[in-house]
Amino acid sequence: MAYTKKTKKKKIHVDSAIVHIKSTFNNTLVSITTDSGDVLLRNSSGRLGFKGARKGTPFAASQIGAALGREMITLGIKEVEANMDGPGSGREAVVRAIEAAGITVKIVRDVTPIAHNGPRAPKKRRV
Length: 127
Known about the structure:
alpha/beta
């Protein structure tokens, strides 16, 4: 079999990024993207070894933020914007852990979708 030369991976250097936090009652998912939308890093509480009900806790979310904070520093990210989505308890814990890692959080946005009209009303009761 012929030898194929492997190409070297480019070292990515980004100054600012966007942190997307999806926090549900059962889990917390975090992805870090560039301003154009390319995913650089991602992590979840299940990926760190948390199982069951512990995945939705603020402690698990802070561990996600700490792990991603260490990886963001190696990429050269200095400041981020945070988009939080969902009703879970790990939303603020991720932001606090990222700030503790030494990265500046410029803007914190809540992008949870809210229904303007709500679901369809139940049918009229017939007696």
